[in-house]
Amino acid sequence: MAETTTAAGLPSGFRGAEQGWPELHRIPHPPHRLPLLGDVLGASRHTPLQDSLKFARRLGPIFRRRAFGREFVFVWGPELVADLADETRFAKHVGLGVANLRPVAGDGLFTAYNHEPNWQLAHDVLAPGFGREAMETYHPMMLDVAERLTRHWDRASAAGRPVDVPGDMTKLTLETIARTGFGHDFGSFERSRRHPFVTAMVGTLTYAQRLNTVPSPLLLRGAARRNEADIAHLNRTVDELIRARRTASGDGRGHLLDRMLDTAHPETGERLSPQNVRRQVITFLVAGHETTSGALSFALHHLSRHPDVAARARAEVDRVWGDTPSPGYDQVARLRYVRRVLDESLRLWPTAPAYAREAREDTMLAGDHPMRRGAWTLVLTAMLHRDPGVWGPDAERFDPDRFEPRAVRSRPPHTFKPFGTGARACIGRQFALHEATLVLGLLLRRYELVPEPGYRLRVTERLTLMPEGLRLHLARRRVPAPALSSTPTESAGEDPASELRCPVHRAGE
Ligand code: HEM
């Protein structure tokens, strides 16, 4: 079914800041606002997030931007973000960037409106698919895919060729979610060109991003036609995947797709409809790989730039894994320092750099900013994570020790939010962290990472963030000596107060 849009071409449910924030005039905006165009001076349509970071630094913890007649409120001050995490007064807002994906993913988990019954149904049916037991069944599949990457990198290193980090991480994470989620193989490492499914997926993400940065969707008519073709391609591929699974022997092997097709809701007995299954498959293929691929790419960039950090992480891998060729599930969780490297990378470049929250009722944000029911704001995670008040005067510096348990405990809650917040936070968090820690461990153990001379980090934005043009040279390490001790010496970096509420969401969030 086609999505409804307002007369201005905005997805239905959109409410302008003018209606939602009675004291909007008290929220600062950039100087030099142009009539019609708004706050476009000093901004590029290719880098909306990085421009917002610039404005945030100048304008403070809450500010607004206007573009082509639409006003947006941004929040990143820790007190404001903590207040927005109050689930009794606020909820996820399916904002523009996310709503633009509705034609592709409909009421799939990520794009569902809060009131849509399929959200709760799918969440309850799929949450166990991200619990510990399910993760243990995914682990050997993740390892298999990671080994395809290392074979690919071994060839590059033997030939003295640098590797294309974001390209290869995207292949890896796509193959991992396809394999663990749906028992599918896109053959990404064997192809010289991008798989057409990936091209179509990137096309729809780019189109959704562009819709945010043009005055009217009518300006994108050519792109809209290509987008429709991309969506049709995604649907066809997914339908084939589902058909293949239905005609297979029927012995579910614990993939997410098996769960979607075979599991009834534990209380109501209800099942996901075929159309909803299609939307969830697309959702997981999209949500499950770009963000993790970006997180891995940024982490590899930082490791290549900080040989001291890389050496410490590598020493941990050698100690914990010894010379086992295939580390087990529990051995990944014991890589505490590698995990900190990942957390610190996600702090500086949270690859899903913002999320939107809306007021469930008329309320006062942090006791200071009145909001009407339905008013919404974008939480600028990437700026929250760089607030010197929380992270210190050196907040821009890469330092994994910020995630030592004692340092974590000393910070106020809701100051590290790469996976969003509340009931609608990332369902794939543990999946992503396990996959990324495993892969970083395998790569650190096998290679020295050498940066390309002269490379300076540039960040591309297309709903998610990625280091642009990042290539690394690899030097093969000798096979590590057997570990002297595999006893972990450091304790978990998890929030000690956190406690399981459902298989994927922790009470502390
Ligand atoms: C480093 C990797 C990842 C990051 C940074 C990330 C980030 C996020 C964020 C910030 C949200 C909340 C969005 C919002 O409030 O609008 C979210 C939701 C979601 N993520 Fe992730 N994600 C990652 C990996 C994954 C993976 C691997 C999967 C699937 C296997 C996944 C599936 C989802 C889904 C389905 C939702 C929607 C949940 C709901 O609303 O019920 N994500 N993610």
From TrEMBL:
Q: Where does heme bind?
A: C426
Name the Gene Ontology molecular function terms of this record: heme binding; iron ion binding; monooxygenase activity; oxidoreductase activity, acting on paired donors, with incorporation or reduction of molecular oxygen
Q: Does the keyword Cytoplasm apply?
A: no
Region named Disordered: 480-509
Needed cofactors, names only, are:
FAD; FMN; heme
Pfam families with a match to the protein in the record: p450 (PF00067)
Q: Does the keyword Transport apply?
A: yes
Keywords of the record, alphabetical order, are:
FAD, Flavoprotein, FMN, Heme, Iron, Metal-binding, Monooxygenase, NADP, Oxidoreductase, Transport
Xref: PANTHER family: BIFUNCTIONAL ALBAFLAVENONE MONOOXYGENASE_TERPENE SYNTHASE, CYTOCHROME P450 FAMILY 4
Q: Which family does the similarity line name?
A: In the N-terminal section; belongs to the cytochrome P450 family. Belongs to the cytochrome P450 family.
Specify the protein name.
Cytochrome P450
Q: Which organism is it from?
A: Streptomyces luteolifulvus
Lineage summary? Bacteria, Bacillati, Actinomycetota, Actinomycetes, Kitasatosporales
